[in-house]
Amino acid sequence: MQLRDNAAYEQDNRVVLTLDAGGTTLEFSALQGGREVAEAVILPSVADELEPCLQQLERGFRKVLEQIPGQADAISFAFPGPADYKQGIIGDLPNLPAFRGGVALGPFLQEVFGLPVFINNDGNLFALGEYVFGFLPDVNQQIQAHGGSKRFENLIGLTLGTGFGCGIVCGGQLLLGDNSNTAEIWLMRNKVQTDCCADAGIGRDKLRVFYAQKTGQDLTDVPAPDVLYRIAKGEAEGDSKAACEAFALMGQVLGDAIANTASLIDGLVVIGGGISGAADLFMPAVMAELNGRIGHLHGAQLQRMPFHASYLEDDAAIAAFSKGDPRTLAVPQSSATVTYDALPRIGVGLSTLGISRATALGAYAFAVSHLG
Predict the structure, then answer these.
(1) Within its chain, how far is the Cα of 49 from the centroid?
(2) Looking at residue 190, what DSSP letter applies?
(3) Which of 11, 172, 271, 290 matches a 20 to 30 Å C-alpha distance to 220?
């Protein structure tokens, strides 16, 4: 699958049916040219029983089909794993017990509707949507507007919510892996609690655990992350210092996981999901990790990553990032000169599309690219 630029997708007339599948609801829609062409249809997921759940899936897509002119060209959506996404087979899902034991969901829908069916995980499709329609083209356009010469072709997309998800696009290719398990960085080692995975330190419940540890409160008495945010900002009653430290601890774990991943991929990083709304509390710790030091033999200290990371949070940061360090060099034994940017760097920023929109656009781009 080779991706095209967003203009090519926006001019494509093919219609793709999409689905946002959750543990309690199923939200159906349709996209054409990267734009929604149907009103969303929301149905209960009926997650405990397979046949009623499959009936809801069929019913939802049929309701969307009734709204669009002509025929649809494909079905493409994100669905939780574990799964064999290439085969369209969904495995054991904790939030959707009806699918335990393995269900050939893709082949079922293909047989019902007579359309190509593409299923992927939400992290992959979020990254794909940001690569084609969101963060990556936005950053490249801003660099160009500021007169910079650098252009980015690689992107790491991170989702922060109940858990920690990731997708990676390199040089126009979404990395999928031989087992549909690429970019499972939630299983990286947790810097703060080294006998645990990174996912044990990133997400809604983990913030509550950190706060409980700092305050000595029972976990059942700790409020939701949005309240913890207000406590940290001094806008709600509670231990402001402990709340700030909880977000900073999550930032350390997240920053370490990003540093490991970015050192392999060397590209932009975009963060989305509900927890990203508290970026002002955890991003300082993330950036300190990315631009910090790491030990080597005999007490040596090295730069944490082979390039500098910039948080693209405002116009001034983007302008400095765009400029880089342009230099002109003479070609040996020649009168010719060459220019190059001597500052290796990556940018980190927040999604402006939002996770639902980016994921739907990723599903659309994935389908259209496979249709050819």
Answers:
(1) 30
(2) P
(3) 271
- Report how many domains make up the chain: 2
State which of 96, 120, 144 marks the end of a domain: 120
pTM, full prediction: 0.94
Which run of H or of E encompasses 345? strand 345-350
pLDDT tens per residue across span 14-34:
999 999 887 678 899 999 999
Strand partners, 350: 271
Cα–Cα dist 359/124, whole Å:
8
Asked if residue 367 belongs to a domain, the reply is no
By C-alpha distance, which of 112, 115, 120 is closest to 73?
115
pLDDT digits (tens, 9 = 90+) for 171-219: 999 999 999 889 999 999 999 999 999 999 999 999 999 999 999 999 9
Secondary structure of residue 342 in the 3-state scheme: coil
**Which burial class, exposed, middle or buried, applies to 21 when counting CB atoms under 10 A from its CB (0-12, 13-18, 19+)?**
buried
Any long-range contacts for 92-100 (C-beta under 8 Å, 24+ apart)? 95/22, 95/23, 95/47, 96/21, 96/23, 96/45, 96/47, 96/53, 97/47, 97/48, 98/46, 98/47, 98/48, 98/49, 98/50, 98/52, 98/53, 99/50, 99/53
Residue 362 counted as domain residue: no
Give the closest residue to 318 by CA, choosing from 137, 140, 155.
Answer: 140
> Residue 65: which CATH number?
3.30.420.40
On whether the CB atoms of residues 270 and 135 are closer than 8 A, the answer is yes
Closest CA to 39 of 60, 11, 13: 60
Please state, in angstroms and rounded to a whole number, the distance separating the CA atoms of residues 188 and 253.
10
The rounded Cα 279 to chain-centroid distance in angstroms is: 15
